[in-house]
Amino acid sequence: MSGAMKSMVYLDYNATAPIRSAVIDAVAGAMAVYGNPSSVHDAGRKARAMVEQARAQVAALAGSRARDVTFCSGGTEASNTVIRGAGAASLIISAIEHDCVRAAAAASGLPVLEVPVDGDGVVDMTMLEHHLKDAPKPALVSVMYANNEMGAIQPIADVAALAREHGARVHTDAVQAAGKIMIDRAALGVDYLTLSAHKIGGPQGVGAIISAPTAPLQALIAGGGQELSRRSGTENVAGIVGFGVAALEAMAELGKGAELAAMRDRLESEIKSHTNAAQIVAERVPRLNNTSCIAMPGVKGETQVMHFDLNGICVSSGSACSSGKVKVSHVLDAMGYEAGVADASVRISLGYGTTDSDIDKFISAWKTLYDRTAVQG
Ligand code: PLP
Questions:
Q1: Conformational region of residue 63, where left means phi above 0, alpha means psi within -120 to 50, and beta covers everything else
Q2: Is there a contact between 81 and 220 (Cβ–Cβ < 8 Å)?
Q3: Which of 8, 32, 69, 143 has the fewest CB atoms nearer than 10 Å to its CB?
Q4: Per-residue pLDDT averaged across 195-222, rounded?
Q5: Which CATH number applies to 21-252?
Q6: Closest residue CA from atom 5 of ligand 1
Q7: Is the model's pLDDT at 192 over the cut of 80?
Q8: Can you give the residue ranges of every domain in the chain?
Q9: Closest ligand 1 atom to 321 CA
Q10: Atom of ligand 1 nearest to the CA of 76
Q11: Shortest-distance Cα residue to atom 10 of ligand 1
Q12: How far is the CA of 173 from the centre of ligand 1 (A)?
């Protein structure tokens, strides 16, 4: 690792988590096995065995059966497949969904009803119930398990119970929840769940749909009938193997959430004790242990990201997938933040490589920027 890499402070795990060394080894090993998992000969059977081992590992992460796991190219494809393939007559989605759900819903041609969130970023159950009564049946409800920008954890079991009372099916985008909180698809009562490997230290470009045995799932991609005809195309064997190893390690680390929360809480409390102008988004509700979204009013998020970058610190403004486009975060907008505050937020997301010294460097850079701007302002 170069000196520059060593000194870099990476606090953007929600954008992508650094790939785990065990994953790199497993992917490299899998690349040396060249069989097609659909081939019946020895080489094919070896590739198939690796895919099936990974399927069991990923299933364990979601509390599901191996045969309910459909591998695909990532969280975006998984959510698109469910939105299009659940056989719904209408869609009910929360106002804070990732663009992969929002855009898939908009492109589906189906009626889409949006469920607002409160000022803490939690879905409004009363409005969900209204929509469930009004929406053409059968409806598909899609509410993410935990938000990527500010970490609020949604009451998915309650959402699913209510949806069921109205005969609706339920999808949850669990991309950010995976590896951070325990997931049990059946206990949550959801029909579909989306996962992505690169958010848990696996390779980019691999994901999975976890579906209930009875849930319909029309393929988005037709072809040779791989993945029980739910997703055609020769499997990304090496990527899938890496996903499996990442799932295994992420499961083993579930107990370490409190350590991350302690570092995140120290970061927030030191900033708050420096100034009461800072706003911590979704601070009052259950949040992912690793996530903090902090507004420094008066300083644009992009300016902050550049400042941190110049100081060797990687963070995001808004969601990484939509940064680059200058638009106010739809998540903070839905929570009722004014543009001046929503514009001025950055997301800090910690993970298995984060150290106390990373947190110190972030706090110091944050205070420097704040003090400089406050003096100039
Ligand atoms: N859903 C959430 C909540 C995400 O944060 C992301 C990535 O930012 C995705 C879905 C998309 O996953 P992928 O990058 O694997 O397509």
A1: left
A2: yes
A3: 32
A4: 97
A5: 3.40.640.10
A6: 148
A7: yes
A8: 3-18+256-376, 21-252
A9: 8
A10: 16
A11: 75
A12: 8
